[in-house]
Design brief:
Number of strands: 43
Low-confidence stretches: 1-30, 515-519, 639-670
Mean pLDDT: 81
Radius of gyration: 36 Å
Oligomer: single chain
Number of helices: 10
């Protein structure tokens, strides 16, 4: 029986038969020696075969172990690279924010006063506040429409319901068992929760844990929809994926699980369903090339549909309605194929209208006003004519879900706000949201603030994006607030992150965002009042500004104390601010890290506001009145500016500095020593090596030695000014070259107004012309500054 354990048992069984034959026939026994030699050879061969099998098996196991080890190393490397990419992206965003905020520091002329830039009003520190809720669960947390409840699947598999007011959790029973993957949770209004699993089906439960209805599994989860102010569950019934995902029909249920109608079909190839705000249900399904169209459950028409066949078994015909229009499109899922086409249909008329390019960003959709658009290329679509009109000039992406449309240049972060009644540009936003070379999946998102269509949150669809969300006023283009990375939902900013590792849990963080508590309204009204009405005279405008005040409290982060100048050095919203306080009173704040300062903001120039009648709150809770300079603030000395390069008019000499002001006392006015570092706010810190080196050398110029060289060479202030004019002319020439090769990007204008990306490249005809324009403008600025200092310090 031992023979049966060997892989070559059939050979050995033959040996046994041969040996038995030797016993049965004595005539053959005479040659027993030969027989046993043959037996020995066969045993030897069998042994070698067994050894070879074992060797091959060991090699296979070793290769499998080596492959597993390599795959583990590659996965670890991919995770390290992804983590490094995210850190790099976060650092780039942080540096850009820091650089943009540095330009808002008050000029040295305002020393001894509490002065802030007007752009800081309404802004919030990105991600600095602790979230109101921080939940780690098997899937993402869901929030009820009124923001009163949070639902999530805990790491132990229980469905938990959290009361947002008290923060208390309780388990919610469900008949849908926990599986290998997390269950999907969706609130149906504010009274029920839909619990779904791909294999085990779905259950609708009320918030007391009572089962309202169970639904069978299928290719799609049932999903809640708001229609006409109420919520319904739409269940598009499909066979399971392993059965070809055939369509079986659609059913609708209210928030209590009561059936609201539907249609059943027999194994259709494809189907689409929708319900409008009036409760009208439309459904169509295709089988064997014939489309059947139903309205409120009754058949309303029939026509020949899309007769194409999928390229392989993993692709299938699919139909989608285009918003609430009469139109739908069909596609085959072959998105990577350049020849893939979308077919557009008039469903009620039962006919195909046209074909469109079939790439994922070219899918037509309808905004809330019924405009038909495509995201990229950015076009308006007219149906049934199937004509298209370009909206953008380049490769921007068009987002048109709300009252306005948004044309997003993902390379620069610039967003044009489009009035969809005229399709004219309303304002331009300069955002932080741009696609990095490492993040091909990035897509910007634009959410108009509920009840405030003139305010839009610019954020990202990408999971784990660390680019802060930004709230803008779309009438003025002004940045109102900088918020944690996330999106609006039910009164919160919500951020969701996939936690990589063995568990693959999700982390959901939520920050309350008050829609109706008046937060920021007074500041917005104050900022709006700073603008001159075209019907008021300059004298009337100046008189109104002089009387304009805003009660204001700010929490200043304390960094140091300067006893010689008698003031705290701190920051508010990451921008430097000084708080004058004599040493005897300042000692009360020896252990404090922050200081609450209250007063009235008044206008002191076109960019800055001063806090007057100010007081601070001591650590003991007492109000301490600050002694501040009386009278009007001194005029901040404007830095010399070059003539405009494009139209001969005035433009900021900084090629991008938001305010042409000195940020330190060095080199200004009568100071004839030091370096040109005081011009730093006017020379934007571009990251291109060429521009970065030019900027570095410019700021390190020694004033005294430069003035001495000018004098020794027979120069004077007038000669220097002529040289500055020549640099201006060279800048104008570069601007002409750049504008001729621009393609509608307005790079020179953006260089002048400070919105050109700091990572602007200097390769190619257009980009290098822009860089040359910047360097010539810088040279003109530096030369005029030296001319001004020469006249002051050398007297000529």
């Amino acid at each position: 029986m031992d023979i049966l354990y060997f892989p070559r048992f059939r050979v050995l069984r033959g040996v046994a038969v041969l040996a038995a034959a030797g016993c049965a026939w004595p005539a053959l026994a005479a040659d027993s020696g030969a027989l046993f030699r043959q037996l020995g050879q066969m045993i030897e061969q069998t042994g070698r075969a067994i050894a070879e099998d074992q060797r091959r098996q060991e090699e296979q196991e070793q290769r499998a172990a080596e492959n597993a080890r390599r795959e583990g190393e590659q996965q670890a490397q991919r995770e390290r690279e992804e983590a490094a990419r995210q850190r790099q992206q976060q650092e780039a965003v942080r540096q850009e924010q820091k650089q943009s905020l540095q330009a808002l520091a008050p000029p040295p002329e305002y020393q001894g006063r509490i002065v802030i830039h007007k752009r800081l009003l309404g802004m919030q520190e990105a991600g600095s506040a602790r979230p109101d809720f921080d939940i780690t669960a098997r899937g993402t947390a869901s929030i009820s429409p009124d923001g009163a409840w949070l639902a999530f699947e805990a790491t132990d598999g229980q469905i938990m319901l959290r009361d947002a007011a008290s923060g208390k959790d309780r388990a919610l029973p469900t008949r849908v068992p926990s599986g290998q993957s997390s269950r999907t949770l969706a609130f149906v209004g504010n009274e029920a929760l839909l619990v779904s699993d791909l294999k085990n089906g779905s259950e609708l439960v009320d918030l007391q844990g009572n089962s309202l209805r169970t639904l069978p599994p299928g290719g799609y989860f049932p999903w809640p929809k708001e229609v006409g102010g109420r919520y319904v569950v739409e269940h598009l019934r499909m066979t399971e994926f392993d059965k070809g995902r055939r369509c079986l029909g659609v059913n609708y249920y209210d928030a209590r699980g009561a059936e609201q109608g539907g249609v059943s079909v027999d194994d259709a190839d494809a189907c689409a369903a929708r319900i409008d705000d009036q409760g009208r249900q439309e459904f169509f399904a295709q089988k064997d090339g014939v489309v059947s169209y139903f309205v409120n459950g009754a058949k309303a028409g029939e026509f020949r549909g899309d007769d194409r066949r999928p390229a392989d078994q993993y692709k299938r015909l699919d139909y989608r309605w285009i918003g609430n229009t009469p139109y739908a499109y069909s596609e085959m899922g072959d998105w990577s194929n350049p020849s893939h086409r979308l077919r557009v249909w008039d469903v009620a008329q039962g006919k195909m209208l046209c074909e469109l390019p079939g790439h994922v960003f070219g899918i037509p959709y309808a905004d809330k006003k019924g405009n038909l658009v495509m995201a990229q290329p950015a076009v308006r679509l007219s149906l049934p004519a199937c004509s298209m009109v370009r909206v953008g000039n380049g490769n921007e992406r068009l987002h048109s879900w709300g009252e306005q449309a948004y044309l997003h240049d993902e390379q620069t972060g610039t967003v044009d706000v489009i009035d969809t009644s005229t399709w004219q540009r309303r304002a331009t936003l300069q955002t932080l949201h741009r696609k990095s070379p490492q993040d091909s999946s990035y897509s910007g998102a634009f959410q108009e603030r509920p009840g405030h269509p003139d305010q839009v949150l610019v954020t990202s669809y990408a999971t784990s994006s660390r680019i802060p969300a930004q709230l803008f006023d779309t009438k003025t283009g002004q940045l109102l607030r900088t918020l944690p990375a996330g999106r609006f939902q039910a009164g919160y900013i919500i951020q969701q992150d996939l936690l990589t590792g063995q568990s693959y849990n999700w982390r959901t963080r939520l920050w309350r965002f008050a829609y109706d508590d008046g937060a920021g309204k007074s500041a917005a009204v104050f900022l709006a009042a700073l603008k001159k009405d075209k019907f008021e005279t300059s004298a009337e405008y100046q008189k109104r500004l002089a009387a304009l005040t805003l009660p204001h409290t700010m929490k200043v982060a304390l960094q140091d104390y300067d006893a010689d100048r008698g003031m705290f050095i701190g920051t508010w919203r990451d921008v430097p601010v000084m708080v004058p306080l004599p040493p005897a009173q300042a000692r009360q704040f020896a252990d404090a890290t922050a200081m609450s300062v209250t007063g009235e903001l008044r206008v002191i120039d076109e960019d800055y506001l001063e806090l007057r009648n100010a007081s601070v709150t001591t650590p003991a809770g007492q109000a301490l009145t600050l002694v501040l300079p009386d009278g009007p603030a001194p005029k901040a000395q404007a830095r010399p500016q070059a003539a405009g390069a494009r139209d001969g008019g005035s433009a900021q000499a900084s090629s991008g500095a938001p305010a042409a002001r000195a940020s330190s006392g060095q080199g200004s006015g009568g100071r004839c020593t030091g370096t040109m570092a005081h011009l730093a706010p006017q020379l934007r810190p571009y990251t291109n090596p060429l521009l970065a080196e030019v900027r570095k050398e410019a700021l390190q110029i020694d004033i005294a030695s430069t003035l001495a060289k000018v004098k020794a060479g027979g120069g004077n202030a007038e000669v220097l000014r002529q040289q500055a004019d020549q640099s201006d002319q060279a800048a104008r020439d570069s601007a002409t070259t750049a504008n001729q090769s621009d393609g509608g990007g307005n790079s020179i204008t953006r260089a002048d107004n400070g919105t050109l990306p700091l990572n602007w490249p200097c390769e190619g005809i257009h980009s290098s012309a822009v860089c040359n324009y910047i360097t010539m403008r810088w040279q003109a600025l530096l030369t005029r500054e030296i001319a001004s200092l020469y006249a002051t310090c050398q007297g000529g």
